[in-house]
Design goal:
Layout lengths: L8 H21 L4 H26 L5 E9 L2 E7 L1 H24 L8 H20 L3 H19 L6 H28 L8 H6 L4 H19 L8 H7 L2 H26 L5 H23 L4 H28 L3 H36 L15 H14 L6 H14 L7 H33 L16 H19 L1 H16 L4 H6 L16 H22 L25 H11 L4 E6 L11 E6 H22 L6 H20 L1
Antiparallel strand pairs: 1-2, 3-4
């Protein structure tokens, strides 16, 4: 009798990946049939994303599963491994891509650069390659899929390639992506310890010396940091996100950056067997610097997509700060505290994926409805785009870290891991931990400030341009995708105890400890360490907010109904207000510009007192361009000119080079 065939989650995931590739191939066959690509292929990709998330959710609790694909070079197939860590990130990829794909079904238009069928191929190849990076269990498969992810995302960024700025942004992104890829490849070379076996199983079995372990860690931080957008490797994000279509920006910020976080976690906690405490200190310092830098620059932006790009830099900084604290605790044998820091970090990974993709999609709706992404030309859109405005508000509140949404839970857990840490053996760390917690609170406050600016300038007040009166709300497909992501923000905010149960196998795999038992002991109260020390009741808070709104509505309807009259708002005795009198994006950012002026390189254009039409402009630039990147570019150009001198265009000169090379080779061989 034939034994029954057991269907494993990894088998279902491979079917999903093949389906994504098939959808992309179908896009090539329907290259310019926009209706078919948008209404059939992209929704089918969204269904595949849901299936991937479902398989991943099951796999979190199923233990490790392996597979070997007969692809690649002879004797060098692709090795795959599905464990709790990879399953969690696959869940994020699937759940977020489902909403973005449904939104894309109503977003893409004809004549926007790349033909819709080719865009469909690049999009679904991008999704499949990200999933394969997370599943890879050897350096060969990892690097092939990593480069596929980079190239497919490059073509997506440059979808509107007729614009010079878009091509420039894509080139910058691809350059930094390849610099990071070289660092990752060198990291794997160190991890295999001259064994010639590049499988992750072999790397786990190696025991590197502290020196070579530090080299591998540094290379991993450089390689994955370039993809994640850590300072000073962040410069591609503010350029690539405004250039890319909004669904692509959503996937890159919400998902692709998290693939880099996955890679760092895999190397530090899995492939490197004994993390050192100072690795955590480096991660903590780099993460805090990135978070503060990102939020300060986000607060002064006037382009809504650049604002969200810098906000992503800030959130990635918080993720790496949590990772650094987890490494410090784990290195000192404090597994429960390491589990708390890791839980906060992973929670923020999921929360950020949902609310940042939602915000990028909302900018796409605004861009299609108005043709503007400059905050100085927007305003009052809640009257014409009410559904988009309310869905955007959910993402804004989550990004600002307000209860009862996802952003509050992750940031609250991160602060708990700092504030309730037991005494570390190092007195310097004990002294710095409270200061770090204060910096994180500052970053969270500035993030809330930035989100008030983002929502208020775009949707509130009066329209700043006459053409905004023609703005229209999003279509059904776009609203459905945004609604799915908004529901994710709400679910993660209201059900933290249940989601910590999902994260528990991941933290137990990485640091041999988890929070599920402690969290479940509090019932509906979230208590990361104990109820006596700190707890948070999201459902209680949510019911309190609902009850307050209901009571206010009842009082107004019961006691004031019929006695209400509408009148203009108080206007300081000047009823002829216009949109020019309300606060602008520059006005919102002015206090931050003044307080954090050393962060910026500012160029001011001041009007003359005799100008008939005075104009004042402030241009804000990143110091790293002049401190780091422009000198590197100048050096590269100088070296290229020197190398170019070798190319004289004469056959005799080239024969002389060959002759000298042959003589040098013979001399070396003779020795």
């Amino acid at each position: 009798m034939t034994p029954p065939v057991h269907w494993l989650p990894i088998d279902g995931m491979l079917v999903v990946l093949v389906a994504w590739l098939a959808i992309g191939a179908a896009g090539i066959l329907a290259l310019r049939r926009l209706a078919f690509v948008a209404r059939v292929l992209f929704p089918a990709g969204g269904v595949c994303g849901l299936a991937l998330a479902a398989f991943a959710l099951v796999a979190v609790f199923d233990g490790a599963q392996v597979a070997v694909l007969p692809f690649g070079l002879p004797g060098l197939p692709f090795h795959l491994r599905l464990d709790a860590l990879s399953a969690f990130f696959l869940f994020v990829i699937g759940a977020v891509s489902a909403g973005v794909s449904v939104f894309a079904a109503g977003y893409f238009r004809q004549g926007e650069g790349t033909p819709p069928g080719l865009l469909c191929l690049e999009y679904h190849l991008f999704l499949a390659s990200m999933a394969m990076v997370v599943l890879a269990d050897d350096a060969y498969a990892f690097m092939v899929m990593w480069e596929t992810m980079a190239l497919s995302s490059y073509f997506l960024v440059t979808a509107n390639h007729r614009i010079a700025e878009v091509r420039k942004a894509g080139y910058l992104y691809l350059t930094l992506a390849h610099i990071g890829a070289i660092a990752i490849l060198l990291c794997f070379g160190v991890l295999q310890a001259q064994s010639g076996d590049y499988s992750f199983a072999n790397m786990r079995a190696q025991s590197l010396s502290p020196f070579w372990g530090a080299i591998a860690f540094t290379l991993a931080l450089l390689g994955f940091g370039a993809k994640a957008g850590l300072v000073p490797l962040h410069v591609w994000l503010p350029e690539a996100h405004p250039a890319a279509p909004s669904p692509v920006s959503a996937l890159m910020s919400a998902v692709m950056l998290k693939v880099a976080v996955y890679g760092m976690l895999r190397v530090v906690f899995d492939l490197l067997s004994a993390p050192q405490w100072w690795w955590g200190a480096v991660l903590l310092a780099v993460g805090l610097a990135t978070a503060l830098f990102g939020v300060v620059f986000a607060a002064v932006q006037t382009d809504m997509k650049r604002l969200l790009a810098y906000s992503s830099i800030e959130n990635i900084g918080l993720v790496f700060a949590g990772m650094g604290l987890a490494v410090i605790f784990f290195a000192y044998g404090m597994a429960p505290m390491a589990a708390l820091a890791l839980t906060a970090m992973l929670y923020h990974v999921a929360g950020h994926a949902f609310f940042k993709s939602l915000l990028f999609l909302s900018t796409g709706c605004v861009l299609h409805a108005t043709g503007e992404r400059n905050l100085g030309k927007l305003g009052g859109l809640i009257r014409h785009m009410p559904r988009v405005a309310w869905l955007t508000l959910v993402g804004v509140l989550a990004s600002a870290g307000l209860p009862p949404l996802s952003g509050f839970v992750s940031e609250w857990l991160l602060l708990q891991s700092f504030l309730f840490a037991p005494g570390l053996p190092d007195p310097l760390l004990n002294m710095l931990i409270p200061a770090v917690a204060a910096l994180i609170a500052l970053v969270a406050a500035l993030a809330g400030y930035t989100m008030v600016k983002f929502f208020g300038v775009i949707f509130l007040g009066q329209p700043r341009e006459a053409k905004l009166a023609r703005a229209h709300d999003a279509g059904r497909w776009e609203r459905a995708g945004m609604l799915w992501l908004a529901a994710g923000c709400v679910a993660l905010g209201l059900l933290p105890v249940q989601f910590i149960g999902v994260l528990d196998p991941v933290t137990r795999q990485l640091v041999s400890a988890g929070l599920a038992d402690t969290a479940a002991g509090g019932g509906w109260l979230l208590a990361p360490t104990s109820v006596e020390r700190a707890s948070y009741g999201p459902l209680i808070f949510f019911l309190g907010v609902v009850a307050s709104f209901a009571l206010a509505w009842l009082i107004v309807r019961r006691f004031y109904h019929g006695r209400i009259r509408r009148a203009p708002a108080w206007d300081c005795g000047y009823p002829w207000q216009t949109a020019r009198m309300q606060d602008t994006a520059e006005g919102f950012g002015q206090p931050v510009r003044q307080i954090f002026e050393p962060f910026f390189r500012m160029q001011r254009e001041l009007p003359s007192p005799f100008d008939a039409r005075p104009r004042y402009r402030v241009t804000i630039e990143d110091h790293f361009w002049r401190w780091l990147y422009l000198p590197v570019v100048a050096l590269a150009e100088r070296i290229a000119r020197l190398v170019g001198l070798l190319q004289q265009g004469r056959i005799g000169t080239y024969l002389l080079y060959s002759f000298l090379t042959l003589i040098a080779t013979l001399l070396v061989v003779k020795r």
